[in-house]
Design brief:
Helices cover about 30% and strands about 30% of the residues. The protein is α/β, with parallel strands linked by helices.
Length: about 280
């Protein structure tokens, strides 16, 4: 097994990640070190991107490319870096993101998701996922009430869609361009006994039917494209509130302003590890 890593400056992280995901769509590991971000992919020799392809894709944003061999037991050792994640506080409640190999917390005050880390995009431990879940807690309905319909644009492994259902929203529609993400979402939905409508969709080509609550954990360029497409819809877009993430801290003002033009006002901003999440509503 080979680990191929690229290092780039943080200000170019979204571009580098977008390019790398096109070359290695099954998932990318991320490590931040100050102003430098490292993205890594794993695979057998011959099944990971070639160095010239990476250099051509990332160009001047690239700082360094390294390759290293990974021990045969890496699948087991990898679990050490993907434990449970507890999100929330006593006032709003908690959400626990738990990989399949860890036992249940069995706490009444915790909404628990069990996730299969063998699928694309891991266990939801990335800061942008945690930020979105934290913002979902802000708008979750009271127990026994319905939060209404939700659309998750770019569902990854289904964490946000499943969390929304468990917090009282529904029905839930989720989509992603990557077929592995669609498969991962379906697997995780079954693990959590969560009814979801999931399908493959290219947001650059068009938007699915929207809902009063929209979740969009995407990178800046795609968030801007989605905003433009919403603005071009005839009549009222029907969005009452939207949670946005996938943003570096310095990108948040631009995205907030873009969506403000749709009549959606920023209500809360949260940041973690250089990333930002936004909650906007009418």
């Amino acid at each position: 097994m080979i680990r191929l890593a690229i290092r780039c400056r943080a200000e170019h992280a979204d571009l580098a990640l977008a390019q790398l995901m096109e070359l290695a769509p099954t998932g990318v590991e991320e490590v931040r070190d100050g102003e430098i971000v490292e993205y890594a992919v794993y695979g057998p020799p011959g099944e990971i991107p070639e160095l010239p392809d990476l250099q051509a894709a990332v160009g001047d944003d690239l700082v360094e490319v390294t390759t290293s061999e990974v021990a045969d037991d890496w699948h087991e050792r990898w679990k050490q870096f993907h434990g449970s994640v507890l999100i929330g506080d006593g006032a709003r409640g908690f959400v626990l993101l738990r990989p399949t190999w860890e036992p249940s917390g069995e706490r009444e005050d915790v909404v628990e998701l069990v996730l299969d880390p063998g699928q694309a995009f891991g266990t939801g431990s990335h800061p942008t996922t945690r930020l979105c879940v934290d913002l979902l807690l802000d708008i979750a309905p009271e127990r026994g009430e319905s939060g209404g319909e939700v659309v998750d644009l770019g569902c990854g492994s289904g964490v946000l869609a499943i969390a929304a259902h468990k917090l009282g929203f529904g029905p839930i529609y989720a989509c992603d361009f990557d077929p592995l993400s669609v498969e991962a979402t379906e697997v995780n939905a079954r693990l959590n006994d969560t009814p979801l409508a999931v399908e493959r969709a290219d947001l650059r080509e068009g938007l699915p039917s929207l809902a009063p609550t929209v979740l969009a954990n995407l990178m800046r360029p795609l968030l801007l494209e989605v905003c433009e497409k919403i603005a071009a819809l005839p009549g009222d877009h029907g969005i009452e509130r939207i949670i946005l993430s996938g943003l570096l801290v310095e990108e948040a003002d631009e995205i907030s302003a873009a969506y403000a033009a749709l009549g959606l006002t920023e209500r809360r901003r949260v940041s973690d590890g250089g990333w930002t999440g936004l909650l906007l509503s009418h």
